[in-house]
């Protein structure tokens, strides 16, 4: 009897601690999302609501907090109805994530088309949304890529179109540039008139491959890191 009580309180404490931790994480994501969304609305940035990182943070934070809060209250109050709800919602989320992973693996080309379409929409509003601009610049620099499918995706941006008249016309952002020695001076005009040239002419000047392919290759080349990321997302729900 004493041993069964020990297991009971051990499981109860572990579940309460787990749910409380993720409730706090959800609140943190929610707070960051609210702040970012307030800034987005203040500056009247990207109109495509699901392209805005702030909206994604709000949705993720709300979901994590609500589900974890139900589990926390259910475990503390020994409420079977809440615990059952917590279990079934977690199971549904877990199965949905597995399904999305399988869909990505099986329909890789179709998913790439969806990513490409969304990236082009983001590139179209590149200078209107500071959040998206910073994220895309980071990805292009980190993964040595440019655009979604290729560097010519930048033609959809009104400032980079070849029929434009500004200094950016027919060019690409400096985050597409091939970096020299670490700490060296970055040539921010390296992408000038790049869209007028062929791929071979640009080797050594800008990155010509798209970020969808670059990130995909990185995930395949770093399979262990990819597996660790997937497990870190799925294991807490098991």
TrEMBL record:
Keywords assigned by UniProt, alphabetized: Cell membrane, Disulfide bond, Endosome, Glycoprotein, Membrane, Transmembrane, Transmembrane helix
GO biological process: protein maturation
Disulfide-linked positions: 146-162
Family annotation (Gene3D superfamilies): Tetraspanin
Molecular functions (GO terms): enzyme binding
Cell location: Cell membrane; Late endosome membrane; Membrane
Domain of life: Eukaryota
Transmembrane feature ranges: 15-36, 48-73, 85-107
GO CC, alphabetical: late endosome membrane; plasma membrane
Subunit structure: Interacts with ADAM10; the interaction influences ADAM10 substrate specificity, endocytosis and turnover.
Family, similarity comment: Belongs to the tetraspanin (TM4SF) family.
Role summary: Part of TspanC8 subgroup, composed of 6 members that interact with the transmembrane metalloprotease ADAM10. This interaction is required for ADAM10 exit from the endoplasmic reticulum and for enzymatic maturation and trafficking to the cell surface as well as substrate specificity. Different TspanC8/ADAM10 complexes have distinct substrates. Promotes ADAM10-mediated cleavage of CDH2. Negatively regulates ligand-induced Notch activity probably by regulating ADAM10 activity.
Name this polypeptide is given: Tetraspanin
Organism placement in taxonomy: Eukaryota, Metazoa, Chordata, Craniata, Vertebrata
Designated gene of the protein: Tspan15_0
């Amino acid at each position: 009897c004493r041993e069964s009580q020990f297991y009971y309180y051990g499981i109860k404490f572990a579940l309460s601690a787990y749910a409380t931790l993720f409730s706090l994480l959800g609140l943190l994501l929610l707070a960051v999302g609210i702040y970012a969304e307030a800034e987005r609305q203040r500056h009247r940035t990207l109109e495509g609501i699901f392209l805005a990182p702030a909206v994604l943070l709000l949705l993720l934070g709300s979901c994590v907090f609500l589900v974890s809060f139900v589990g926390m209250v259910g475990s503390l109050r020994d409420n079977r109805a809440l615990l059952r709800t917590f279990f079934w919602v977690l199971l549904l989320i877990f199965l949905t994530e597995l399904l999305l992973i399988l869909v990505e693996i099986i329909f890789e080309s179709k998913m790439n088309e969806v990513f490409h379409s969304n990236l082009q929409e983001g590139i179209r509003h590149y200078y209107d949304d500071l959040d998206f601009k910073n994220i895309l610049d980071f990805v292009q620099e980190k993964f040595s890529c440019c655009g979604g499918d290729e560097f010519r995706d930048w033609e959809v941006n009104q400032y980079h179109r070849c029929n434009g008249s500004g200094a950016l016309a027919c060019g690409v952002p400096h985050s597409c540039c091939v970096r020299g020695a670490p700490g060296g001076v970055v040539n921010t005009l390296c992408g000038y008139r790049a869209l007028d040239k062929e791929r071979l002419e640009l080797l050594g000047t800008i990155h010509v491959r798209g970020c969808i392919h670059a990130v995909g290759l990185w995930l395949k080349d770093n399979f262990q890191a990819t597996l660790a990321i997937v497990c870190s997302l799925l294991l807490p729900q098991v």
